[in-house]
Design a protein that fits this description.
This protein is mainly α and 90 residues long. The protein contains four helices and two strands. The longest helix has 10 residues.
Length: 90
C-alpha cells in the first residue's frame, strides 16, 4: 500500500502593508494655525505623535487627528480635506 501525501497550499494571503504617507510639517502648522517650530516642539514634548524616519520627524494624517481629539480641537474642515484642497490640480 502506497500512501501519497500532498501538501495543502494555504489560501490565506498576508495582508498587504499600507504605505504610510507622511505630511509636511508646514502643512500641519498651517492647518492648526501655528508656526512650524510649534509643531516641532509639540513632537519633542510628546504632545503630538510622530514617526522618526531617517532621522526626520514625520507626521501622518492620523497623528494630526489624534492630536485634535486629545485636545478637543474642532474645525469645519478635516486635515485630509485641507490637504486635498491645498494640492488640488498639482
Amino acid at each position: 500500500m502506497t500512501v501519497i501525501m500532498t501538501e495543502e497550499k494555504s489560501t490565506m494571503r498576508k495582508p498587504r502593508r499600507r504605505s504610510t504617507r507622511y505630511e509636511k510639517t508646514q502643512d500641519v502648522a498651517d492647518f492648526l494655525g501655528v508656526n512650524v517650530s510649534t509643531i516641532q516642539n509639540y513632537c519633542i514634548k510628546g504632545k503630538m505623535s510622530f514617526h522618526e524616519v531617517n532621522g526626520y520627524r514625520k507626521i501622518t494624517i492620523r497623528d494630526v487627528e489624534k492630536y485634535q481629539e486629545e485636545n478637543n480641537i474642532h474645525f469645519d474642515q478635516t486635515f485630509r480635506q485641507f490637504l486635498e484642497e491645498r494640492y488640488a490640480g498639482k
